[in-house]
Amino acid sequence: MILAMDIKELTRAEEQVMQELWKLQKAFVKEIIEQMDEPKPAYNTVSTIIRILETKGFVGHESFGKSHRYFPKISKDEYKDFATGKLLSGYFDNSPQNMLSFFVQERKLSLKDADALFKLLEKAKKK
After folding, report:
1. Domains and CATH numbers, the chain
2. How much is the pTM?
3. 54-92 residue pLDDT tens
4. Tens-digit pLDDT profile for residues 6-46
5. What is the longest distance spanned by two Cα atoms in the chain?
6. Which UniProt keywords apply (predicted)?
7. Are 73 and 66 in contact (CB under 8 A)?
8. How far apart are CA 25 and CA 35, in angstroms?
9. Residue 36 and residue 13: Cα distance in Å, rounded?
10. 25, 102 contact by CB (below 8 A)
């Protein structure tokens, strides 16, 4: 398991590539590009981003001659935990209540969303 302090923040472009790799689990650069929205980035751009992600410890690869098939070394859940913690500490003073209040007031949670949250809280209470 990777510690949160070992995880580095992703740039927007890196995160886009990781989102596709998390879905695919193992992929060559061309397969990642095929999954991306239009306009598709250039092969060299995605290849460079993948190499940066390898340097940051997010991605590993298997060699097939001169080709490489890439795979995530950090799970989406591990990165989600890191990013949420960063958001919570950086913008909401480490207060889940402040964060939830923001979403209720600014993002206008629907009654359906609020009901689902209450059910989660009730379930957590019972544990």
Report:
1. 4-72 (1.10.10.10), 76-126 (no CATH)
2. 0.80
3. 999 999 999 999 999 999 999 999 999 999 999 999 999
4. 788 999 999 999 999 999 999 999 999 999 999 999 999 99
5. 55
6. DNA-binding, Transcription, Transcription regulation
7. no
8. 12
9. 11
10. no
